[in-house]
Design a protein that fits this description.
24% of the residues lie in helices and 34% in strands. It contains nine helices and 26 strands. Helix 1 packs parallel to helix 3. The longest helix has 19 residues. It is globular and about 60 Å long.
Length: 387
């Protein structure tokens, strides 16, 4: 069994006040034999020294990322720090960090795994991931490489973000240290039995036409049905501006079916290149089938509500914890009320312990028709782990 303890503070500037608030909330709680703290915070909590001071005071390791908004029972906001303590008598937590990551090279990941798993009995039940957001590294690299290294241990996590347009303050966290270019993770040893919920876009709300990826390179989608992507999108009715540039592509992500028996994943479009190709938020394999979806506030809240209700029902079982990562794209699409999804989480989950934060890309297993898991990265998606 894993027990959750939710702690929070709004104090980003005064280190002493912030530490006193967190330690004061923790004082009335009983920690079990093994504990780890998961932190999601605005970047100011790192630069001011609050996170480092907390790491010194708390009697367990601290891991997590920066974010631009987060929520917990009865609490939410942008300039906030949320700390959820997982504590257990029969599940052990091992924390680790990779060396510096500069390219898509598995060496730093493999070295960190070997050091963390050394001497442990068998494979971990779950891996929680806190990955750096690096422009030259696709999240698919993380998902696929960890699956290969760990023997397909279920991998659930997030890529760091922050409040800046270029995310230059996005950082992963381990103890007193914060990193722009290192991957932090937690391995759970013991009986955990996690349940995963993944919600992106409703296929009923997507364009009816389906296309086949006929040319791609990594996350660059070149052709669908043998024609440039820009032409394919125009044929569906997407409009161009006076300069001939497709309008609003961020509101039209792809619903991508790998055709391997696993559920579809969402791939956001970030830009259209001069030759009509689409730069996407993850790899687009040739031969995959895609549908163009539509993302808006109504769709965000509809998909979130369905998943949150399922998670709540599962968490009614004694000792269940809820960890939620939602894509930053979902936050921005909500326009004048970006807190609407967090409001919905608090409304549905009530006093059920949960930890919610926004993410650069979501990492979560999906379950194939054969019952086997496949670790995937997701865009414009809300992912939930109940354990």
């Amino acid at each position: 069994m894993i027990k959750s303890i939710c702690l929070k503070t709004l104090e980003a500037d005064d280190v002493d006040v912030a530490v006193a608030e967190i330690t004061g909330q923790l004082a009335g709680e009983k920690l079990l034999r093994h504990s780890v703290g998961i932190v999601s915070c605005f970047a100011d909590f790192v630069s001011s020294g609050v996170v480092a001071a907390l790491a010194e005071k708390l009697p367990f390791p601290l891991v997590g990322t920066t974010t631009l908004a987060a929520a917990a029972p009865g609490f939410q906001g942008e300039i906030v720090l949320i700390l959820t303590v997982f504590t257990s008598d029969d599940v052990e937590f091992t924390v680790a960090v990779t060396g510096v990551i500069t390219e898509e090279d598995e060496a730093p990941l493999k070295a960190a795994w070997e050091a963390a798993a050394a001497g442990k009995p068998g494979k971990p039940s779950l891996m929680l991931s806190f990955a750096p957001l690096l422009l030259n590294i696709a999240a698919d690299f993380y998902a696929d490489t960890w699956s290969r290294i760990t023997g397909n241990v279920p991998n659930f996590g997030t890529l760091a973000v922050d409040h800046n347009q270029d995310y230059h303050e996005s950082q992963t966290i381990l103890g007193k240290e914060a990193f722009r270019d290192r991957y932090v993770f937690v391995l759970f040893y013991g009986t955990v039995e996690p349940e995963f919920y993944v919600g992106g876009l409703s296929e009923e709300k997507a364009f009816r036409e389906k296309g086949v990826v006929t040319s791609s390179q990594g996350n660059l989608l070149k052709e669908v049905n043998g024609v440039p992507v820009a032409d394919y999108l125009t044929s569906l009715g997407l409009e161009k501006d006076e300069k001939g540039v497709l309008k609003g592509i961020n509101s039209f992500p792809f619903i991508l079916d790998y055709n391997d028996g696993t559920p579809p994943v969402i791939r956001a479009m970030y830009a259209i290149t001069p030759d009509g190709s689409a730069v996407c938020g993850g790899k687009i394999p040739e031969g995959a089938t895609l549908t163009v979806g539509i993302i808006n506030t109504k769709e965000v809240l509809a998909t979130s509500s369905i998943l949150l209700q399922k998670a709540k029902e599962k968490a009614r079982e004694e000792g269940k914890s809820i960890l939620i990562f939602s894509c930053v794209g979902r936050y921005f699409i909500q326009g004048f009320n970006p807190a609407a999804e967090m409001d919905r989480a608090r409304e549905i989950l009530g006093d059920t312990p949960f930890h919610f934060c926004y993410s650069g890309t979501e990492l979560s297993p999906v379950i194939g028709k054969d019952g086997k898991i496949a670790n995937r990265c997701h865009n414009d998606t809300i992912i939930i782990c109940v354990f």
